[in-house]
Each structure stands twice: as structure tokens, then as C-alpha cells.
Design goal:
Rossmann fold, 5-stranded parallel β-sheet, 11 strands
Length: 417
């Protein structure tokens, strides 16, 4: 359970983060060991506390400070007079940018590290850089320190996933992430968050592609294009629909519509390959077969996941929420056709199973995103196997597999301030 800190003066509510407290104590002149000890004590005191005011939190810290520092040190914490130090990161092209805790945390999450742990590791690294007066650091040095920190603070698996992700980032091979699933499964929302984490700006929805095609082809010429995917079967030129298997009709109608969308979908993927840029393609029309449209000899990382909501009640609730968030998408229209939507999902899941692709339960968005990132990292691991020296260069020359490598805090200490 996260403790929420309420700042009544600024009308803000933020989660209590031990790393943030560590940094403010370092700014007050404490050593890292002292700041770490106090922050851990405060965290333990708040473990069952849901909310606390910023003033009360400060009082708890002051009580701990008084056992370690004099009145001047306490005053420095309460009334900080110095601007927090900045660390500049030097890219491979020698461009200098400010160290971004948000970006490092995102990179860690992209490598499969859970959000809370990513935030903790980020704050830990930043606190060490400030403690030892590091004013600038190369991106390779920062990457290697992060790898060592994960190796020694979290474990080998997490460190290796970060190594694989870092190697991919330094390559020019684009990532192609395809997300399928029925209506209301949360494809668009999840795709947007994944785009942010994976730093992919090109996100394409098949709904938008279908809308463009509708503008180009009138309904009287192609009625199946102008209906919902789950009701496309109603436009099929079949006389004896009442005698046909209904689930099969739903599947045939969907397939007929999806076939029309394969051309623009393929164009999106081919454009991404030609420009060597990552892309996320999401939508109900995204079937695993689309990956076959990309030539096998192209240098591209291909990942496909199918989202599923396996409880009918949960899917109905998500369809109602969809209507609230986007009023023009009437929830009643979806609920009236729920049996068709449920039947379509059964077909999509059977296709995913036939193609042996990952099926992700999307009933909890945060868990679904974590599982998709795991699938991305599994696929990346099939393409990358570089050592720390391969990935981070001279910054990692002292790394020796199987031996006790230099502790990450000592690695920070060895940097020029």
C-alpha cells in the first residue's frame, strides 16, 4: 500500500517515495548512509498509513534528524537554501542533456522492471550521483551503472533484461508491436501507455484506417465496410442466414471486413520498415496473419499479442465505461449486440491459439501492460545477446562474467565529478 502525502498549501497529492526523501536529506548535508537510514525508518513507520500531510511527514523526519545532526542541519532540511544539483548526460554524439529520472524509470519499466522498483532504482542512482558530486556522465556510463545497480540490488534476470533493452535501443532495428482484441478490451488505452513507455510515437488504429476507407468507398458499393465488425455478418450476401451456424456467420462477416483492412494495415507496416521506425498497430482487425505480410528477410522485431476479457460481466462494464468516456460511442449499441461481440472474441482467441501467439488477459490494465512488456523483452532476447562491454563499451571494460565485478556505488565514486 502506497502512502499518499498531502500538501495542502499547493493542493497536491503525491505518493511517498523513499528515494525522494533520500535526495532532500542529501541536500541538507547528510551522508548517503544517514539519509538512507532515516528514509527507511520513515517508510517503515508509514507502512500502514494511507495518507499523511506534508507537515506531519516533516515532523517525523525532524525527530529522526535530531539524533544525527545539529540544529543547523535540521534547519537546512526544513528551509533548504540550495538548488538541487543537476547532472548532465553526454550522448554518443556528445550532446548534453539534463539527467531525467522520468526517462530512466521508463527505460527500466520498458525492460520489465515493475514501476515501484523502477522508481526506487532511479532515485537510488540519482542520489549516488549527487552524493559523489558527479556533474556529468556519459550515456554509456549511466547505462552500465544502471545495469550494475540492477544486478546487485534486484537480480541477474532484471539486469539481463535491461542489457537486452539497452542493446536494442542502440540498434537501428525497429520494433513492430501488433495488438489485437475484441471491442472494449482496452486496446487503444494500452497502446497509448505502451507507446509512452517504449518511446514509440507512431501508433495506428485500424478503426481510423477503416474510417478513411469509408470516406473513399460509399456504403452502397461496399456495405460491409460501413458496419461494425461484430455485425458485419448482417451484410453478407447469404440467403439462408437463419439456417446457418450463428457463430460461424459472425466469424465470416468479421473476416470479410478484416480482409479489406489488410491492405492499409500492410501499408502501415511496410512504411515503418522502409523508414526504420518503430510502430504500434492496434485494433479489432489486427490478426496474427498480418505479421506474415512483412518479408522474413527484413530487419525488424515483430511482436503480436491478443487482448482478452474472459469474464462477460467485466467486458460489459468496460463497454459501459467506453460509452461514458466517448459519448458518441453509445454503450447501449454495444450492449445490445453483446452476444455478437462475445462470439467475435471467441473467434479471435481461437485464431490466436491457432497461430500460437500470446493471449493477454486485459481485465487489469497495469498487469496487462506488464505482461506485454515481458513479451516484448522475450522477443528482443531472441535477437540480442551482447555482453556489458558490447553494449556499454569502455564504461564496462572492468566487467568480468562469473567474478565479483566492481560494486555499482564504487563505480559511481570512480567517476570524475
Amino acid at each position: 500500500m502506497k502512502t499518499i502525502v498531502i500538501n495542502q498549501r499547493q493542493n497536491e497529492k503525491v505518493p511517498f517515495l523513499r528515494g525522494i526523501l533520500v535526495r532532500s536529506l542529501l541536500d541538507a548535508g547528510l551522508s548517503f548512509a544517514e539519509a538512507d537510514k532515516i528514509s527507511t525508518t520513515i517508510r517503515d513507520q508509514l507502512i500502514k498509513t494511507k495518507t499523511i500531510s506534508s507537515e506531519d511527514l516533516q515532523k517525523l523526519v525532524v525527530v529522526q534528524l535530531q539524533t544525527l545532526v545539529d540544529a543547523e542541519g535540521v534547519e537546512q532540511y526544513i528551509f533548504p537554501s540550495v538548488t538541487p544539483s543537476k547532472v548532465l548526460v553526454r550522448s554518443l554524439s556528445e550532446r548534453l542533456t539534463a539527467f531525467s529520472r522520468g526517462r530512466l524509470a521508463r527505460n527500466l519499466q520498458s525492460a520489465g522492471v515493475k514501476t515501484e522498483k523502477a522508481e526506487y532504482i532511479t532515485e537510488l542512482i540519482y542520489a549516488q550521483l549527487i552524493t559523489f558530486g558527479v556533474s556529468s556522465i556519459s550515456s554509456c556510463q549511466l547505462g552500465y551503472i544502471t545495469y550494475l545497480c540492477l544486478l546487485q540490488e534486484v537480480g541477474k534476470k532484471a539486469a539481463n533484461r535491461y542489457l537486452v533493452w539497452s542493446e536494442h535501443q542502440r540498434s537501428s532495428t525497429p520494433l513492430m508491436l501488433l495488438i489485437g482484441g475484441t471491442i472494449g478490451a482496452g486496446k487503444s488505452t494500452i497502446a497509448t501507455e505502451l507507446g509512452h513507455l517504449l518511446e514509440i510515437v507512431r501508433i495506428q488504429s485500424t478503426d481510423m484506417l477503416r474510417e478513411v476507407m469509408r470516406m473513399m468507398v460509399p456504403k452502397r458499393l461496399l456495405p460491409i465496410l460501413h458496419t461494425s465488425s461484430f455485425n458485419a455478418w448482417k451484410t453478407l450476401p447469404i440467403q439462408d442466414k437463419n439456417e446457418r451456424d450463428w457463430d460461424q456467420l459472425v466469424a465470416e462477416g468479421y473476416q470479410s471486413q478484416a480482409e479489406l483492412l489488410t491492405v492499409p494495415c500492410e501499408a502501415v507496416l511496410q512504411r515503418a520498415v522502409a523508414e526504420s521506425v518503430p510502430v504500434i498497430l492496434e485494433g479489432v482487425h489486427v490478426l496474427p496473419d498480418l505479421l506474415d505480410r512483412v518479408p522474413a528477410n527484413e530487419a525488424v522485431i515483430k511482436v503480436y499479442v491478443m487482448l482478452a476479457v474472459l469474464r462477460s460481466k467485466k467486458l460489459k462494464n468496460q463497454l459501459r465505461g467506453r460509452g461514458v468516456k466517448v459519448p458518441k460511442r453509445s454503450a447501449e449499441r454495444y450492449l445490445d449486440s453483446f452476444d455478437s461481440i462475445w462470439s467475435l472474441q471467441s473467434f479471435l482467441l481461437s485464431e490466436a491459439d491457432r497461430c500460437n501467439v500470446a493471449i493477454i488477459t486485459a481485465e487489469d490494465k497495469r498487469t496487462a501492460i506488464q505482461q506485454i512488456l515481458q513479451q516484448v523483452n522475450l522477443e528482443l532476447a531472441r535477437h540480442y545477446s551482447g555482453t556489458p562491454v558490447d553494449v556499454f563499451g569502455a564504461a564496462a571494460e572492468d566487467f568480468q562474467p562469473g567474478k565479483n565485478c566492481i560494486a555499482w556505488r564504487d563505480q559511481v565514486r570512480s567517476l570524475d565529478g
